[in-house]
């Protein structure tokens, strides 16, 4: 009763920000992402009657209590779904090209959902797998699929209609996503905590909710017509709007560092000089820059010239879940 799965991480073009149900990980809004080809988690799960407790190793060392709690809670949901009480051993590795800054709960819980359900021999559709992965970390439901992926928020209170689906395969449209790693020391507020505080306290959150669906429609149109400029404009504005909701939270949340703002201005300058590049920023200081593959070398080199930029990793749309025998 053992299985290994690999999941890539994803970057949201239209952000998931806010939950309507924290236990089930049900979002306040639908979101859309690109699964990336460079950052992934590889996870092996084994269930065995002889195990008398759960064990979780992350990057070859025993995981922290906080990490264990999240993972074991998720495993309890899988066990409940499968009707088993067997304990498990979990070995998980975040394979990222650099030591810090890119570890992701999206690839982590997507790989864990896939490996644990396969180890228990549950024959799940991708839709069912996405629904389960969502309950470990919301963004994980999108990493089940490759390419361009939409997570429909759903309406049901049990979450049965809240899952992701692929809208365009990774081969169908190649765009470049440059992951910009900045020098940073600061301890960050987790996405989970950041979105909770924003929903509960930010007067700007209703503004987010009343416009995000329109942004989503616009991005889907841009993807449909492979209109990169149209895509970039709405992606950048959606990310800025998410961060604006956090600035209004109490206490306010600011994920940006000075290097983050340098990258923002740099991208604006690139556009003024005729290169179509756009940025998006998640719940942290690092920036992802979107551009067309023909411009990627130029954008890459120009980003590396900025003082606070430590590393830039060029990504492209990547594949969904894979199982290793
Ligand atoms: C800003 O999926 O990490 O990256 O569901 O609480 O685990 P939890 O949050 P998580 O939040 C991701 C937030 C985001 C936007 C996005 O990926 O859509």
From TrEMBL:
It is an enzyme of class 4 (lyase). Residues 181-307 form the Mvd1 C-terminal domain. Its EC number is 4.1.1.33. GO terms for molecular function: ATP binding; diphosphomevalonate decarboxylase activity. The lineage of its organism: Bacteria, Bacillati, Bacillota, Clostridia, Eubacteriales. GO terms for biological process: isopentenyl diphosphate biosynthetic process, mevalonate pathway. The keyword Lipid biosynthesis applies. GO terms for cellular component: cytosol. Belongs to the diphosphomevalonate decarboxylase family. The keyword DNA-binding does not apply. InterPro entries: GHMP_kinase_C_sf, Mev_decarb, Mev_diP_decarb, MVD-like_N, Mvd1_C, Ribosomal_Su5_D2-typ_SF, Ribsml_uS5_D2-typ_fold_subgr. It comes from the Bacteria. This is diphosphomevalonate decarboxylase. Residues 7-164 form the Diphosphomevalonate decarboxylase-like N-terminal domain. Keywords: ATP-binding, Lipid biosynthesis, Lipid metabolism, Lyase, Nucleotide-binding. Pfam families: MDD_C (PF18376), MVD-like_N (PF22700).
């Amino acid at each position: 009763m053992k299985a290994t799965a690999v999941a890539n991480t994803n970057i949201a073009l239209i952000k998931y920000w806010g939950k309507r149900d924290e236990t089930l990980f049900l979002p306040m809004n639908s979101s859309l992402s690109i699964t990336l080809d460079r950052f992934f988690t590889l996870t092996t799960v084994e269930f065995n009657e002889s195990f008398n407790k759960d064990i979780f190793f992350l990057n070859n060392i025993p995981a922290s209590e906080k990490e264990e709690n999240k993972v074991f809670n998720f495993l309890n949901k899988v066990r409940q779904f499968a009707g088993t009480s067997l304990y498990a051993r979990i070995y998980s590795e975040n394979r990222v090209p650099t030591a810090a800054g890119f570890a992701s709960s999206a690839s982590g819980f997507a790989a864990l959902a896939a490996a644990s359900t396969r180890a228990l021999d549950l024959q799940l559709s991708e839709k069912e797998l996405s629904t389960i992965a969502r309950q470990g970390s919301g963004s994980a439901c999108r990493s089940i699929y490759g390419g361009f992926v939409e997570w429909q928020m759903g309406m049901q209170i049990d979450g049965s209609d809240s899952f992701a689906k692929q809208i365009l395969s990774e081969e169908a449209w190649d765009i470049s996503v440059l992951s910009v790693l900045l020098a940073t020391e600061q301890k960050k507020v987790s996405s989970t905590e950041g979105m909770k505080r924003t929903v509960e306290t930010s007067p700007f959150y209703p503004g987010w909710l009343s416009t995000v669906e329109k942004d989503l429609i616009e991005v889907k149109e841009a993807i449909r017509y492979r209109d990169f400029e149209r895509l970039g404009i709405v992606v950048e504005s959606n990310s800025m709007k998410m961060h604006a909701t956090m600035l209004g939270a109490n206490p306010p949340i600011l994920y940006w560092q000075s290097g983050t703002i340098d990258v923002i201005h740099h991208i604006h300058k690139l556009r003024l000089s005729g290169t179509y590049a756009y940025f998006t920023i998640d719940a942290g200081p690092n920036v992802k820059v979107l551009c067309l593959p023909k411009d990627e070398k130029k954008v890459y080199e120009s980003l590396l010239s900025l003082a606070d930029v430590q590393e830039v990793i060029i990504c492209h749309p990547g594949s969904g879940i894979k199982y290793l025998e």
